[in-house]
User: Fold these one by one.
Assistant:
Number 1:
Amino acid sequence: MKRSIRKRDGQQWINDYLLKVTGRPVHYELDSRLLPTQAKSMRMVSKYVIKEAEHAEHLAKSAENCGDKINARALFRVASEKYREAQHFIIPPNSSTRWDIYAKARICSQRMFNLLDYPIEQVEIPFEDKTIPGILHLQPGGIKAPAVVFIPGMDNTKENYPNPLDNEFHQRGMHVLAIDGPGQGQALERGIFVTPDNHVVAASAAFDFLSKRNDVDESRIGLSGRSFGSFWSMRAVADEHRYAAVASAVACYYWDLLTIFDEAPIRFKQVFMDMAGIDDENDFDKMCTGLTLKGHADRITCPVLMCIGEFDPLNPLEDAEKVYEALNCQKEMWVLEDEFHSIHSTKALCGQPTFHFMADWMNRALNKKLDEKLNRKIFVQKDGRGMYNQ
């Protein structure tokens, strides 16, 4: 008889109850509901989110058939995001059922891409003896421009961000290459598992890929990441010094405290063990000793922007501050008052996406408009004070 893999798997009933009450699979400290009210447990989520995806996809196709391009692409975006969310809840996680749903997310994304006002390319980037997939958002006209490589978080894929309908970096004149790194999206489907440092290899490969293009300014390529992508992007630039800047948010800047696996809901550990291809908890815990920026942060040479919520339960502020203090480069840190892990849309910034502000910082960094002695840690209050030194 099979027993639970992890010591804390027995807490699943607690997670199910909290999902029922809050409408959230994690991040219970936030107020708004995310999931359909019919979903009363983790296993129920996919069924009802798929229904929402099918609704949006049907309406998108109808809009496109009627020549309503703008609504069609918006609806294909909704459908893609719903399918992407639904596949993340499939049990067992590495199954054909999951990948069939994820394929629908990619199909809807491509239907949206076909209706956009700027070009997008689906690309493959050499990685060891395989390739990792990417989505390349291009400036129109084939102009030579700066570029940003984006690494998603552990529950996201390259289709999720940037949103082509509101692409922060693209609006500021930058190409964007979003990748599925090791353990993510199609890379995981291909059997490319995550290790503590193989996102360094992926980031180097992405830089090589972009640097060979005539429409990319090799001297102005930045790296960005969200959630666990914030860790991977920082870890990458510690070894890959060709990147001109790194900016990230939704913090996973780990030094000593890996609270995401030790104190947060067990779902984080369940998902990451699958991403790593490890089914023995002791082996996984040993691997996790490598998930630290200690001994790496001091080797970063490019400008750094770190963004974190004041009370992030997955990355305690005092741990992230140790990473910041270890940096010997141009550096800036934004701490958003009373915010938690998800700082996508905050009261301090009037609900505007944090990445819009980060993209502006990246634009200045790639154009060498930062103070040469930059060392700025700001506390952004809920009324916005602090963001612009006011």
Number 2:
Amino acid sequence: MPIPGEPLPGDAPSADPLGEARSALAELLTDAGRRRKRFSPMMERAYREHMLARARNVMRANTLRVAVFYLFIGILTFEYVKMMSSTVTGNFDLILWTGIYLGGALVMSAVTLSARKPALHRWYGYTVGLSCYLGLVGLTVTGAAFLSPYLNQQSTYIVIYLYMIVYILSTLPLLTNIAIGVGASLTSLLLIHFGGLSLDIVMFAQYAGLSNVMGVAIAWMLDHRDRQAFLQERLLDIEKQQLNLLSQEMARLSREDGLTTLANRRYFNETLAREWAVAEREQQPVSLVFVDVDHFKPYNDTYGHLEGDNALRAVGKTLKSLVRRPSDMAARYGGEEFVLLLPNTDQEGAMAVAQEVRDAIDALQIPHRGSKVAKFLSVSIGLSTLVPGSDNSISTLIDQADEGVYAAKRAGRHRIRAFHLLKSRSSAHPE
């Protein structure tokens, strides 16, 4: 079955990778009997990294609590060992206990350091595994070395407790935990035997064997639970990504023209209002360039509406390519009419952009047999520039640019008209 992030050989790129990943995760969640078997190598690595990261976070968050607890246990057991040590054993048991306690502190310090230092994070799993192994072997062997039979017996309980810590809290892979637990038991048995220490083989087999069996069972159940939680967390992350993408797509559709992918009229109006406010505050000019496709109805009648749509797309793509500053905007104003918003652009700059637009549309050379102006698709352009003030408004800017378009049409189309020139040369021919 497909696993998230691992496309099958020969498959084409998925149109909806998040949807496929979600389906794959949902299938794994409902297939509890084969969940472990069906974790891909990639997902298994992600799961292991997730578990180790969680363990490091827990260790970092509880470092002080663990240190205080360990210190409390040390004070408590020190007095207990001192009290249980007989005059025959002298200080040997107390010295041995001190060695065990300091060794445990050293092991815990190594684990804590690898959890807290980012440079050592990659070694955290190895540090935990080695610490668990050395802790089990060290405590089992030194526990057998106590001269006091009572302390010798009590140390076995601590060893059992340590076995449970290894299997339950180490967050290492189950097979690694088994290797540590069984390996530590066999190593301890050999060291005790060749070290000449006293050992009740039957009791050792009972508590070591039972500890490993119980530890494996508990670790398997915890691993099963953690894998399910991991899958659910990933599923929630994917659903969150899908919702974010859907929200972004809805926002895009709400401000984009479906045919040309330019800004639509509503988004243009919102942007114009925002830029107008900025220009009013900074007393900077705002320019509008209205672009109207000449004789577009005859074009549709001659070539059909599909070709008409293609022509509008070509015009829109051209306008988008001429928008170079982040604050500039190209929008479809309606039908065959487009608009360029040019904040902080004076009349001369707007005229230069308008000429670029006209030349770029001409360069497309889209055939237009129905045009009375040229053999190819052409545009009429009107522009206006204002510095926002008390004597004008956004409507003034739009009306003036629109008037420029009508003036260009009256002059024979395929023209550029600036509103300020219309005021002073209302009877003149186009420049």
Number 3:
Amino acid sequence: RGQVTAKYYVLAWSFLLVGGSILALSKGGVLPSNGFTDHAAQIGSLFEVVLLSFALAQRINVERRLRYEAQSETLATARRLNLELEDRVHERTRELESLNHKLNELSVTDELTGLKNRRHMDQVLRLELERAKRSGRPLAVALLDIDHFKPVNDTHGHPVGDECLKLVAEIIHAGLRWPSDTATRYGGEEFAVIFPDTDAQGAFVVVERIRERIRETRIEVEDVVISLTVSAGIYAPAVHQGLTAEELVRGADEALYSAKEHGRDRTIMLNPGALIKPD
């Protein structure tokens, strides 16, 4: 592009130089004097002006093209950077969402057993109770407590006790029938299960199967063989209106206490119409 402009400049000055030379030769008698030779300088100057105009126009076009290309390149770079930034933002957002999900999971998960913790159980129970009140569908709550667990810890140590808790948690979780059923570690050696859309008899069948499976399992930890049993209490009121989540848990706890009082290793259902006595 620069060479084209240079050519215009060379031709323009060449015409001026040739025109001036012809005029000088004409005045010196070397060339004959006529209309062309007498006006050769003006003619050369005219061609010079025309060619310089072409050169200027060419230069302007070149500058305009370069400016357009620079703008296009700048816009393309800006778009590319924006896309890269958006990708990074989306990637970072996904990472943060994943991390937030993991943190939320950790906040509602029992570290030892992998079951949901009491905080999660309280949240789910309130939601399921409200749903049961709206739909009129049944809802059952069960509490399971390992019988005579303290002597296991005292005799064999907490590592063995922890392994026992893990295995019991696995059996409880594996014994659930539906994805909506929620098993949680309620505290210590006590576990809770929420049974949405399940009446007392349905919950009783599931809990009994879990209880029998625990009783039949021999737990081997560090060359120690341990047999465990659990007592369970179930509360599945016929009418949910006016009840709170705390009262549902209290009802299951009363049934669990009754199972302990009647010899342990058994499941007892609280009468659906029983009054819940405040603590």
Number 4:
Amino acid sequence: MPLTPGQIAQLDEAINGYAFPAVYFDFNNDIEVVAQNMVEVEAVLAGQLRSQTVVSTKHGLANVLYWGYAQIGYRRNRINDFMNNVSYPQISDFQALINGNNIPTMMEVHRICMPQYSGISFISKILMFLNPSAYCVLDKQLTKLRTPGSPKILNQLAFRQTETRIRVTMQNEAVYNGWRNECSAISQLYFQGNYRVVDVERGFFNLIQQNHLLDAQAIYNDA
């Protein structure tokens, strides 16, 4: 059934109240940068990722991790692993995938085997920063939207909460693409297309982080 006015208002508030840390790292000057908003973070990281310079692209990929682990204590270990172990050919292969504003598939990124990019959670973050209008994140938090018996696409995800990562498979990539299409449809149907795919996803993420999981599940299933 369609969303009620109350559900629409609740999701709208969650979208606008999204408050994940808007930060990235200036690796040249070894300092964290607190951005004014996520739009600034998106612009900086997209510019780094699409740079023709290997070092800048490397910093962009490291910043996807830096932003994604902003609320996690072991962030520095993950960044160091990537910075110390990613190779020049891996960065070059990634640059080739996104040449000409192309958006690669998850499987294509996964096959490069870059450190820290073995699962859907962070590969989806790369795609999101490349094009937040059409791509979004799918991580362990958002898998909590799944409910038994629901026909929604996330229920088809091959993932158990005991697993440490969401595996990159053809099935799971199809689920991811279905998830971002669902977010797009919600924007079109309930918000006149004013929100990007990533904005809708962030609304659900915010509801979950604010301990409104049941409300988030109900909105997702009814939308």
